[in-house]
Specification:
Layout: E1 7-8, E2 21-31, E3 36-40, E4 45-50, H1 55-59, E5 67-74, E6 82-89, H2 95-114
Parallel strand pairs: 1-2, 4-6
Antiparallel strand pairs: 2-3, 2-5, 3-4, 5-6
Length: 122
């Protein structure tokens, strides 16, 4: 089994060209007949569809208001949302703190890409 890494993102920053991503947020709605949920992370909302066999019964155990982490892929070209791989309920999730951490992480990531590897600009 091949394992793909996931990059932590906020919903507003997900691009269709991104690889596998990880988001954290609150479930807004559940549609267990379609194997889908809608998640809000404070920066935006996205629909997430789970196509793997056996996911529908698992999704039925989730409710609006549940805090979750989702790993998946941006939807195919012309579609919106995510194609979910992993769904996990979390407790004690603080959306504001998560957004702050993600902003710092994005800043560090951009600084690293612009440096020579020793913290100095190229």
């Amino acid at each position: 089994m091949e394992v793909w890494p996931a990059v932590a993102k906020v919903i507003k920053d997900i691009l269709p060209t991104d690889g596998r991503v990880k988001i954290a947020g609150t479930i807004i709605s559940v549609d267990s007949t379609k194997g889908a949920i809608k998640v809000d992370d404070g920066t935006g909302m996205t629909d997430i569809t789970f196509k793997a066999p056996g996911m529908v019964p698992k999704i039925e155990r989730y409710n609006s208001g549940d805090q979750v982490v989702v790993i998946g892929w941006p939807a195919r070209k012309g579609e919106e949302g995510l194609e979910g791989d992993i769904l996990s309920r979390v407790t004690g999730f603080e959306p504001d703190r998560y957004r702050q951490v993600m902003e710092v992480w994005e800043h560090v990531r951009s600084e690293t890409e612009e440096s020579d590897g020793f913290g100095q600009p190229d």
